[in-house]
Every structure is written in structure tokens, then in C-alpha cells.
Amino acid sequence: MNTGSNEPAEVTDPAAGVKPEQPLGSRAPEFIQARRALHLSWQVGVFVVGLAVVVAGIIMLPLPGPGWLVIFGGMAIWATEFVWAQLVLRWTKRKVTEAAQRALDPKVRRRNIILTTVGLVIIAVLVGIYVWKFGIVMPWKIKE
Fold it and tell me: Are 109 and 103 in contact (CB under 8 A)?
């Protein structure tokens, strides 16, 4: 398929499950990119909308709501127009994929299960010692 550009098409092996990365740069329609003032206005609009979404995500971090998901949504909006946001999203996707692959490693899963079990046993022993030594006293029954 010829897209009208002189760049060679990226070839990938569908069996390998590797998708080609989109080229960096603006994804605005061509008629917008062709007019400098219109393209600058488009970029300002994309930046403002992305900023509003990112700020909403930051507000949701301490409040109920999908804060990180909304922040990454704002980054995706910025990535439609700005190369720096595209690079940040590519890096983030790569790191998330690497972390998911490490988490699925049987050795890592076994280690995490063992550490969690040991931690829960230690906490249970400490709570048991506290209850044995001081008993269970409800805050409203404390005698002074």
C-alpha cells in the first residue's frame, strides 16, 4: 500500500505478534497541517484538552476515581500531536509490558507468594504476642 510518502513501509511478522510503531509526529489531518496558523491552533487545542484531562487525573489520585488511567488518557491525547508525549507513551508501554512479563515468570511469582506468606506469618505472630501480653481492650472501655 502506497501512502504517498517516500518512506519504506514497515514489515513485521504477524506470527511474532509485533505491531509496527507509528511514525513520530502530528496526526492532524493533512488540510490542517498544510496551513501553519490552523495547525498551530490545532496544537493549542490539543494541548489544552490534554492538559484538562491530565489535571482531572491528578485530582482523582487522592479522590475516588481512575486517576492514573485518566492521566494516561491525557498523555494519549497529547501524543496525537506532540513527539515528546509519543516518546513518553512508548517508553511507558514498554516498561508496563516488561513488568507484566516479569510478573508472569514462575520464579518471581513463587518468590512473591513466599514473601507474602512469611510477612503475614510475622504479622500474625506479632499481633498474637500483643494480644497475649495486653489483651484486647476496646477504646471505649479504657479505665483511667
Answer: yes
52: Cβ–Cβ under 8 A, 6 or more apart, which residues? Answer: 74
Report the C-alpha gap between 127 and 34 in whole angstroms. Answer: 69
pLDDT in tens, 100-134: 888 788 888 889 899 999 999 999 999 999 988 88
Query: Is the whole model's pTM more than 0.70, yes or no?
Result: no
Q: Under a CB-based contact definition with an 8 Å cutoff, are residues 63 and 56 in contact?
A: no
Cα 46 from Cα 36, distance rounded (Å): 15
Helix 83-103 vs helix 67-79: crossing angle, to nearest 10: 140
